[in-house]
Structure formats: structure tokens, C-alpha cells
Amino acid sequence: MSFQDFLEDYWGAGLRPQHYDDWSKKKLGCFLEILTDNYLFHQGGPALDHLESLKEIYPLLAHGVGLNIGSVEPFDDAYLKRLKGFLQRFQPKIISDHCCFIGVGQRYAFDLLPLPRNQSSLAIMKKKLDYLQDYLDRRFSIENVSRYISYESDEMGEIEFLVEVSRSTGCGILLDVNNLYVSSRNEGFSWQDELKQLEPSMVTQYHIAGHQDFTDYLFDSHDQIIKTDVWQVLKEAWRAVGSHPVILERDDDAPWSELAENWRPYVQLG
């Protein structure tokens, strides 16, 4: 299989409400990723109706931002209950959230905060993922976040940390190639060396997105055309760990034309 063939068979995009009609009418042969937090607290209405229609057309993946997996605090039981019900209803192929924390003690950062890469954080992640996967009765995948800081207590690299969690819990890894590239530039490590540590059985999915270059640092903005260097990271990841769904994330400044422009060189959009 060539890289082109891989993209044609495994491409997809994050579902955003402004594109409901586009996806319904075009009926493209791809994956759609649902941002679960946009739907968990709906009791009904058009948003869930759209998902019911789309699940008959597309294989769905579920991705969240609110689990707070890396926090020292236990999971929110009400959140978990709603998540489990959502997964039972829509039956996504893959479910995921981020390897991070978002708040402590009812104080939330409204951002994805990176964990110190040390044994203490590993212990927290292992304990909570064991509980989560048992509760959901599903394999769960964790995603690497973009990093703008390092901790003095860091003991290992980005991918090494994820690999250790995966080996211990059996969880999957959602490899965000843009986040890996952004973090490698910001922290000064080699993304090529990081990829060598992954095992094919661990990776379940890829994310790819655009970023902004502020000279001193890169920012994972999800509002730009994807850079050539990031496509190269995806190509090398595919060579290393194989074919998995590739979800293009576009959150801000996201007309359908911009989404299509990223994929058009690689797939037929009709």
C-alpha cells in the first residue's frame, strides 16, 4: 500500500455542526470523529438527530476533552455515566481523550495541560485508565497534547510516557502528528526518534491539523492549512506503525472549502 492509498482508505475529519448538511449530502467514504463533549448533555434535539443520521452513512469515532484523566482527582461519575450511555447509543469504532489534566478542585483551566512525564503521573494514568476501561468495557485511547512548557520533574520523553501507559493498561494511543511536531520544535527533541519507540499494536488512530508559527514557538491552532512538514510526520508514522484512521482537525475559521483544501490533493471529494 502506498501513502496515497493509505490516505484514500483511512481519511476523515472532525465533525463540526456547521458541516452537518455537507456530510449528509456528500456521503463521502471516510471516517467522522465526534467531539463527545458537544453532545453528552443533550436530552434530544437536532444535534443528536444529525448524529443518528450520520452514523448510518459514516463509521464514527468519539473524541473528548473533558475526562481530566491525568488529574489526581477521581473521575466525575455523572460525566462517566453520560459518556457510557453515549457510546452505547452511537457505537463509535474508537474512543479517546487527551493525556493531560484540565483542572483540580472545581477549578478548570479550559485548556489541555500537559502532565509531568514522571513515575507519579504514570501511576495516576495507569490507575485511572484501568478503571475507565473496565467501566466502559472498551479499549480507550489517549492522545499526546501539544507542549509549551517542560517540568523540572520530567523523567522521560513524550512518546516513552505514552508507551509505558499503553504497555501497562492495554490502552491505545491516538497519535497527533501535529502535536508531536509542535512539541518537538518547542522542546527541541527529535520527532523521528520519538516515533521509533512506538509499537504498531498500540496506535489506534492519527490526528493531523494546522499550526501557527510565532518564530519563538509553534502554536497548535487548528485554523491553518496543514504544513508540509506535518504531512511528512504522518508519512513517517504510517511507515512505522501502519494504517489507522486519520482525522483532520479544523476548529476555527473552518468553512467547508478550507477543510476540503487540506484533503483535496490526496482524496476524491466529489
UniProtKB/TrEMBL annotation:
Entry superkingdom: Bacteria
Pfam short name (any one): MbnB_TglH_ChrH
Family annotation (InterPro entries): MbnB/TglH/ChrH (IPR007801)
Gene3D superfamilies, sorted: Divalent-metal-dependent TIM barrel enzymes
PANTHER family, per database record: UPF0276 PROTEIN HI_1600
Name recorded for this polypeptide: DUF692 domain-containing protein
Originating organism: Pseudobacteriovorax antillogorgiicola
Taxonomic lineage: Bacteria, Pseudomonadati, Bdellovibrionota, Oligoflexia, Oligoflexales
